[in-house]
Write a structure and sequence with these properties.
Residues 88-198 form the Peptidase M13 N-terminal domain. InterPro entries: Peptidase_M13 (IPR000718), Peptidase_M13_dom_2 (IPR042089), Peptidase_M13_N (IPR008753). By secondary structure, the chain is mainly alpha-helical. 46% of the residues lie in helices and 10% in strands.
């Protein structure tokens, strides 16, 4: 393994696991190996699941058409949120937030709702409108760059048509793993060409 990656700075054994820290060509990668558990199927499953997870969207407002309406702008210091019928010495939370809680029930598409959720919804909306404007009518080269990137990401029809075709080169790299001695080289190639971080236990 050292000859394939040119140099290994240090190797440790911690809790029965061998930890190898590489310096070149990948200075920031640590590969955690357990010799009895490394196999082609495990590596393939891990890397494939990483690729699938990286392809998932994590924002709640990420729908093909974007937000349908503008969320209300949060009020920085809202005195109307105070419930003056509650005794602050008995239940300060009810006193400070009681009226806001009455006026803002949890929306049906959410599992919880609070002021930070309102703020996140507003920020997502503002980001979407900025990106959409840059995609539709860029005013300068920077807007053209991120507008084109946004438009490409929002092209759901193309993504559906292509399916897993964009993943095929990475999957072919994983399928080329024949021996655990190739693992470091495969991990390096996946990191370099596809930005897939791989850690195995």
């Amino acid at each position: 393994m050292a000859s394939r990656l040119r140099s290994i700075t240090e190797s440790y054994v911690f809790d029965g696991r061998r930890i190898v820290l590489l310096s070149e060509p990948l200075p920031s990668i640590g590969i955690f190996l357990r010799s009895d558990m490394i196999s082609k199927s495990l590596a393939s499953l891990l890397i494939l699941s990483t690729a699938v997870c990286l392809g998932q969207a994590f924002t709640e407002t990420d729908v093909p058409g974007g937000p349908t309406s503008e969320p209300k702008q949060p009020i920085i210091f809202d005195l109307s949120a105070i419930d003056k019928t509650a005794d602050p010495c008995i239940d300060f939370y009810q006193y400070a937030c009681g009226n806001w809680l009455k006026k803002n029930p949890v929306p049906s598409d959410q599992v919880r709702w609070g002021r930070f959720n309102e703020l996140a919804e507003r920020n997502n909306y503002l980001l979407y409108t900025e990106l959409k404007a840059a995609a539709d009518d860029p005013k300068n080269p920077l807007q053209r760059k991120y507008g084109d990137y946004f438009a490409a990401c929002m092209n759901v029809d193309l993504a559906d048509r292509l399916g897993t075709k964009p993943l095929q080169p990475a999957l072919a790299t994983i399928a080329s793993l024949k021996d655990k001695k190739q693992l470091a080289t495969i991990v390096a190639e996946l990191q370099k060409n596809y930005s897939v971080g791989v850690f195995m236990d």
